[in-house]
Amino acid sequence: MNPMSTQLIDYYAAEDKIHIATDCIIFGFDNESIKLLIFKRRVDPFKGQWSLIGSFVKATESVNDAAKRVLTEITGLENVFMKQLKVYGGVDRDPGARCITVGQYALIRIEEQDKTLVEKHGAVWHDLHEIPDLVLDHNTLVKDALVQLKLKASYQPIGFELLPKKFTIPNLQRLYEAIYQKKFDDRNFRKKIIALDVLTKLEEKDKSTSKKGAFLHKFNKEKYNKLVNRGINFRL
Amino acid sequence: MNPMSTQLIDYYAAEDKIHIATDCIIFGFDNESIKLLIFKRRVDPFKGQWSLIGSFVKATESVNDAAKRVLTEITGLENVFMKQLKVYGGVDRDPGARCITVGQYALIRIEEQDKTLVEKHGAVWHDLHEIPDLVLDHNTLVKDALVQLKLKASYQPIGFELLPKKFTIPNLQRLYEAIYQKKFDDRNFRKKIIALDVLTKLEEKDKSTSKKGAFLHKFNKEKYNKLVNRGINFRL
DNA sequence: ATAATAAACGTATTTTATACATTTATAAAA
DNA sequence: TTTTATAAATGTATAAAATACGTTTATTAT
Questions:
Q1: In CATH, what is the architecture of A158-229?
Q2: What's the CATH architecture for B17-153?
């Protein structure tokens, strides 16, 4: 028998049964617009309806691990950028039972996903401007995650999580234009990005969008960490 | 009987029992340094140890309402600024049982608290630099909340939540100096704050710290909201 | 060779941030 | 009642960053 006194058991038994889940707001970028990965539920409740990808949290895993688990199940990806958004803890948010959910947003490189796996689960990338009605309060989670993404992108270089490992400066600009929904001056954008000194320019060129071709770059995490440690903060 | 099918009941019963709590990281400011409100637990487990103020979430209340409830119980205050920090969902964070907690930080005007009530609960304000060892992972919650406070203070005027309704510009400066742990040039600080145009200058003066006296100001939320709506973001 | 075009580079102007000096209002001391 | 002391308030010159906009370059297709 475990050493806890009856008093302790009472303490932990005092509160009421609440189910705890986590839902992933999965963002991707296809060099045109921000995409969201959602799927059509194949089981009840809400069978056939569009939904974020989530799961109940198991007793044997942390909340964050639960989110990682479902993300890997669906996309085949590991070590994905993921951050807690917030807890949706309203009493009536799920008509079926008292369920709270931890919203977590993930940024993935679409081209690295396991396409077969994604399709197998009935998951589909939707343009952010064409998100259908989702189950429960999931549309709210998406809206909140987008606000968070915009905010976070303004002081941390999370944008790089959405681009291929190698990308051009125009690629990066298009990404930020998609995030902020506004055009940047290409000359000033380039100047600012280069001034940050967190990119490594490669010899290679990407000629898919122009005759001249654009040099590929890699994000230099070391340089970025040095920046942060010196107390300087990325701002676009 | 309720209309849910057995299948649905199974669905919601599928996951394992996890307890859900919320803990408040309560900050105050006494015109010198940032303070944290903690208390000595009077019941087991952890009886006699310092702890954040928290509670299990009841089936009849939202997660946010649970935090508001405990805050009001202890301080007598309502309508307090409070924001979710993050979920602490590790499997082993509580040795007694599988418990996850939602950390929420609150900013209160110390002088508005119900001092008797606070004392009755054994709660004590501690200088941020003199926080004792807390129960479970509560020291981590405090550390994380402080990072969040600094970050948030840099793009939203949450500082005003910690000051009395009427305050002087030197008061405000001392607050930001306490948050960022660095001195600002008083001439430039004043210039920036006034340029933001979110303060209303009153006729009244506070003469407690100088012969000349300093004009009292009020935070003008309307002007601030207009700023935000125009897409301009407060930055100190 | 020439045209077409995205990519890359450059420069002038405005705005904002920083560094530092001076004046002002007031209570208490001389 | 003048003088002194001091926080509060105002001012100004310089440096840095953001913005607006013009030009050159490398390459493929005509």
A1: Orthogonal Bundle (1.10)
A2: Alpha-Beta Complex (3.90)
The string of DSSP codes covering A61-122 is S-HHHHHHHHHHHHH---S-EEEEEEEE--TTS-TTS-EEEEEEEEE--GGGS-HHHHHHTT
Q: Which of B2, B7, B12, B43 to mutate to test the interface with A (most CBs of A within 10 A)?
A: B12
- Domains of chain B by residue range: 17-153, 158-229
Rg (C-alpha) for chain A, rounded Å, is 21
Separation CA A174–CA A186 (nearest Å): 10
Nearest by CB to B63, from A19, A43, A100: name it.
A100
Pairing assessment for the beta strands A34-40 and B19-29 based on DSSP bridges:
unpaired
Is B9's pLDDT higher than 60? no
Q: Could you give the 3-state DSSP secondary structure of residue B36?
A: strand
Partner residues linked to B20 by β-bridges: B100
- Predicted structure pTM score: 0.93
pLDDT band for position B2 (cuts 50, 70, 90): very low
Q: Averaged over A88-97, what is the pLDDT?
A: 94
Residue A194 predicted with pLDDT over 50: yes
